Amino acid sequence: MAPEAPAALAGSALLEALPDMVVVADHHGHISYVNRAVSTLLGHDPDALLGQSLMVLMPERLRAGHGTGFARYAATGRGKLVGATTQLPALHAAGHEVVVDLTLSRMDALDGADSDGGLVVGLLRDASTTIRLERQFEVSRHLAAIQRVTAALTEAPDADAAFEQLLPTLCTELDWDAAAIWQPDDATGRLRHAGSWSAAGRPPPKLLTDARHITFGRGEGLPGLTWQRREPVVIADLQSDQRFLRGDVVRSDGLRTGLAFPVLHGDSLLAVCELFSRETREVPADLLAVLATAGRQIGQFLSRLHAESQVRALAETLQRSLLPPTLPSVPGVRLAARYRPGGAGLMVGGDTYDVVPLPDGRWLLLIADVCGKGAEAAAMTALTRHTARAAATAGSGARAVLTAVNAALLGEETPGPLRFVTACCVVLRPHEGGVSATLSIAGHPSPVLRSPEGTCTEIGSPGRPLGIDPEADYPELDIELPPGATLVLFTDGVTEARDDGGDQFDEDGLLAVLRDTRGQDVEATVRAVQAAVDRHLAGSRHERDDLAVLAVQC
Question: Which of the given ranges, 411-415, 423-427, 433-437, 544-548, has the highest pLDDT on average?
Fold first, then answer.
């Protein structure tokens, strides 16, 4: 015959209406009351449970510990679970486990009556919803951390800088104490140390300082295991796990848990990141999944940065080939130039300048601006420079040089939209009293002549750009540059530079700089022009164009 429920609970409509399971045990650990919610939570008939041991609700592995603990509680009235809420597994009638939040209280604490100090009441609540929410929160926290890592990497100018930022950002965002990064060495076929990080205010662990002298093969140590498996690997206790080959070092450092994940691009391993904690910590499967995905995303990002670095290096090399490496020494004059590419620097710009000695003692000065960027613009720039050099060396004047370039561009068949070139060509003839110059302009901004007194004048007429009209003519203008005069040639990257409001630097801005630098040498003049344009562009949303300035001073 089933025992009767305690008087305080018998027939309680309130307890029967509760959605949470309530179970009461006597001082022998037998169930004396259980409400109907047990059917929903654990699938049992409440009447069939009366008189049975509480162990019927527990997984087998927990029963021995429960018996000892309950006996101690019955004897002393004290138990570490009483008065607290604990998350643990309960056994469903169908045989599977259900995670519940268990809150235990003494029976006399429930109703104020003396129940021989042995009765205990337990409240059981399904914890699956809480666990799901906590897991979702943890996953969201991990994802947000990885997004912050990715955001930090996007600010890196190249792959090397991104690697330097990767470890401190990862550790800070995910709350680890130290980290190392390993990269494959093509020469040895092993992983070599590529960088370390440790928390601020603490000396770097010996593990990290020794890492510079260690390499790992595939399958060796935590980095090698991660390389071999191509997935995150956790070693919960670094000090005792034989897979971690540096146990003596981590014992002296006080490190406990290690985690490593691969940085992959396709099938290629770019790096292995190791994270270390001074506390023994559980690494949830959700974090491993996030890191596995993050490793591939970071790998794709780093590969793109590396590719961009290579493209940038090629672009810079090509750009340098389209500019004179140094300016020559011209008798009787001083030269200075500035060049700055526009945009993101990944494409070759179209601005160029050149200074070429001619056989009869004259000098050719050329500044040009090719429409567009990239390989086609570079090809047109090279064609412009080489044609101008050839024509000038053959004895042609400024007009003939531009006419020759125009013909060469028109004869060049290129796919895509029409491309044209603007240019200003100046032929200098130094003499005892100064310099005579002949200039010709093809659709280019007019150069500015600054007199020794500081008066600035735009000279020449623009004409038509090169590469458009086979009948175009480029009239010449003869000028004299007395001692102290400065002739400034420039591209529209100077005058058309736009601030954030869209206002251009304009010819007025250039003339103001040239007047302000009156009496200064030619190097100071071109430096001041670039600095003024850069100030005008500071904070602008508008993309900057290539800038070239070439100046000659008598």
Answer: 423-427
> 185-197 burial, b if ≥16 CB within 10 A, otherwise e?
eeeeebbbbbbbb
Burial state string for 103-124 with b = 16 or more CB within 10 A and e = fewer than 16: bbebbbebeeeebeebbbbbbb
- Spacing of C-alpha 532 from chain mean position: 31
pLDDT digits (tens, 9 = 90+) for 292-302: 888 887 887 77
Residue 108 token pair = 């006399």
pTM over 0.70: no
**Which tokens belong to 373?**
């960027």
How is residue 241 written in tokens? 């796990």
pLDDT value for 375: 66
Q: How far apart are the first and last CA of the chain?
A: 121
Structural domains for the chain: 13-126 (3.30.450.20), 139-314 (3.30.450.40), 323-553 (3.60.40.10)
d(CA 280, CA 243): 17
CB 119 within 8 A of CB 108: yes
Q: Are strands 456-458 and 448-450 parallel, antiparallel or unpaired?
A: antiparallel
Look-up: residue for tokens 């800088």? 161
